Amino acid sequence: MTARKQQLLKAHRRTKRLFLVAMLLVLAALGLFLNLWLVPVLLVLVWVAHEAWFADHLFYRATDDYRYHFPPDTTHLAVSLEDGLLCLAQPLPEGETLVFELRLRSSWLGRWLDPYVEVGDDRQDFERGVEGVRYLNLSGQQSALAQGALVLRGRYCTLASTGTLWVMANPDYARQPLMVMAPHADDAELAAFGLYGRGDEVSIVTLTQGEIEAENYQRLGLDLAQASRLKGRLRSWDSMAVPLWGGVPTSRCLQLGYYCLQLPSMAQSPEEPFGSRQSAQSDIRSVRRYNPMLLPADGDGAPTWNNLVADLVALLEHFRPQVVVTPHPELDPHSDHVATTRAVMAAVTISQWKPATLLMYANHLHDNDRWPMGPAGAGVALPPAIEPLPADRLWSPLLSVDQQLDKAMALAMQHDLQGPLPVKRQLRRWIQWLLAGRRWPPTGANEFFRKSVRRHELFWVRDLSD
What we know:
The chain has 466 residues and is an alpha+beta fold. It has helices at 2-33, 38-53, 142-146, 187-198, 224-241, 263-268, 305-319, 335-350, 401-412, 423-435, 448-451; strands at 75-82, 85-88, 97-106, 116-119, 122-125, 131-137, 152-155, 157-159, 162-168, 178-182, 202-208, 253-258, 323-327, 357-361, 393-395, 459-463. α8 (335-350) links the parallel β13 and β14 (357-361).
């Protein structure tokens, strides 16, 4: 998928360059026939239009079908839409996670305003100009659906009259011993705060300090290495302290202290240490002081892959989780996220304790940096899957309004999600608010307050016992 994204990115940039050249030629021609003062005015209008309607980073076509495969034994049935009501030809099967596959088609207005589908008291947004197969998340709507009272209405788009309902049954994984793997501080909260906040027996493991991109801390009079060390300490503290807001004590939280964006290099050379790119540190013990237990890498503090895997083996055998929550290696492209799940699987292979289930999440996407689209508090439709993913089951637990507020406050405590937006992004938001009808929550300026505080959390379920 990375190669495909690079091809689409090159095409996107080529199209933008051609568009800009064409606009400059048009403006130059207008300047010959109109007053010259109109040219800068037109340039500003073109920039405003770009920020309002053409600034999204979608590395696929809105007319592409999403392509999902589910396990062969997944229950599914044909359903129809009649006057907005979703009608079943047979009784609704047992299952808490419901996914409705159907075809959407944008109206002309849906090329300028975000098209969305009202799903009872929920809404789920899609790409402007959408025309293809999409997947609505109907989890939590079982009662209305079974009674034939679930209403679906397209806004700035039309819905096909028939589709397929996929029904997936899972246990409540919050009732099983959980271990949440976070590549960086805040990943556990972004993906699974609602889940781990309900958990009976939860441990949270953060793999890296998250110390890079610390230029903002140089305003305190620090050089880059000092700023990076400060940021690493702050985010390491976040990884230990913020879970307490969700009911997980610090005695069940661990910060491993490896260095940001170095996990893939460590995986390539398992015995070689890889220190920080910015903090001038190479001893991971500097941020392990709050850990409740000693781990294998505490012996030499070396940031090596072998030490990381040994740490994870020790944690699996100590906490004995039935379920491990970890990034989706095919869907989430962040290099540290991919390497995290690779390290987890290496540890599971040699550990004496074998968890039964992986719950996989995606905090980043290859193809669409706005997903989940739409406002905070709305439902989470399935993300783009232009190239098919492995056929995993889905689990999508609900978050109450109170849980969503607690999740937003957990994000607000994270140092990396604090602070105002850059001026350019704030201008873009004002323009999109005025012209495109987009809205952002008052809980925080960072985009994750919109994307992650939702009606649903979404996990891909992979059984390890098969």
